[in-house]
């Protein structure tokens, strides 16, 4: 079960790594932040709802409070899109990514506060290696620190906080319900939030622009459907801390996709960063195995 959880979380986080390609392309076509977010969430809701209907899934054993909790969890993903994409208006994609990746340590704080689970020395070591890898992989060292825009920095940090909340609470709410049903409700929460935030952009949506809907469908898949569905399936099977560390796979995916699709060059230090992130995942897993073995031996 744990292996399945790891695979689903890796796939969900990896798909989110493709979002900068779609977002930057959308901005290049002249679409606004609101138009991009609305297209993504509306299409994600349509796709997931259609899948639910095709499979004949029904909502079972969910109370009113479960509905509310699931949709609130979904708003965390919506907020992540709003903040993350907004940061890309002021910062380069690499800087926005490194700010988003603050979710690694923020997630540990969530687990400490809400689950009363203190980080171990191995977790802290894994965190330090992860953040070091993030710095290298995002090419921050070779970048110009003066390019940091205050609004971009704030939006990027908020994206990290909301993303950490989504990862953590995805594994906490109504876990016995079907993952697709949960995903529909989560995306519904995201869609409502986005429509409220960007209500003024609704009349400006270019309904007849096919390019807009093609771009929106791609973004809906990698930024809404796949992450939400796979996290809903995988997060309950593993710890929130492990889910956070595994989600670091998003960064190398973002770098590789930018290299292939946007023809961006990738330096040796960036590949070192990717390797460090993989090492951090191994450190975290070995630490969990050693802790589990110690508890078993004591028993």
TrEMBL record:
GO terms for cellular component: membrane. Keywords: Membrane, Transmembrane, Transmembrane helix. It is a multi-pass membrane protein. It is found in: Endomembrane system. Residues 4-137, 151-283 form the EamA domain. InterPro entries: EamA_dom (IPR000620), EmrE-like (IPR037185). The chain crosses the membrane at residues 33-55, 67-85, 91-110, 122-141, 147-168, 180-200, 212-230, 242-262, 268-286. It comes from the Bacteria. It holds the Pfam family EamA. Belongs to the EamA transporter family. This is Multidrug DMT transporter permease. It comes from Guptibacillus hwajinpoensis.
């Amino acid at each position: 079960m744990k292996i399945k959880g790891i695979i689903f979380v890796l796939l969900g986080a990896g798909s989110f790594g493709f979002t900068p390609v779609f977002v930057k392309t959308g901005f290049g076509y002249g679409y606004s932040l609101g138009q991009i977010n609305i297209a993504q969430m509306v299409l994600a809701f349509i796709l997931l709802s259609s899948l639910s209907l095709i499979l004949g899934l029904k909502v079972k054993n969910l109370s009113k409070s479960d509905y509310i909790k699931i949709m609130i969890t979904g708003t965390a993903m919506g907020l992540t899109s709003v903040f993350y994409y907004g940061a890309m208006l002021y910062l380069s994609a690499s800087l926005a990514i490194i700010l988003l990746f603050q979710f690694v340590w923020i997630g540990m704080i969530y687990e400490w506060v809400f689950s009363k689970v203190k980080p171990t020395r191995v977790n802290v070591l894994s965190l330090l290696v992860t953040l070091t890898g993030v710095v290298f992989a995002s090419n921050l060292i070779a970048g110009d620190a003066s390019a940091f825009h205050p609004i971009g920095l704030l939006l990027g940090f908020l994206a990290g906080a909301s993303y950490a909340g989504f990862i953590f609470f995805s594994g906490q709410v109504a876990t016995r319900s079907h993952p697709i049903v949960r995903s529909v409700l989560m995306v519904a929460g995201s869609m409502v939030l986005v429509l409220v935030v960007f209500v003024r952009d609704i009349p400006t949506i270019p309904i007849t622009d096919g390019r807009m809907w093609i771009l929106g469908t791609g973004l809906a898949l990698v930024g809404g459907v796949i992450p939400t569905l796979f996290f809903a399936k995988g997060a309950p099977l593993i710890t929130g801390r492990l889910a956070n560390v595994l989600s670091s796979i998003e960064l190398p995916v973002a770098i590789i996709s930018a290299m292939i699709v946007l023809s961006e060059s990738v330096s040796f230090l960036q590949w070192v960063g990717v390797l460090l992130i993989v090492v951090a995942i191994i450190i975290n897993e070995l630490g969990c195995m050693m802790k589990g073995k110690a508890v078993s031996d004591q028993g």
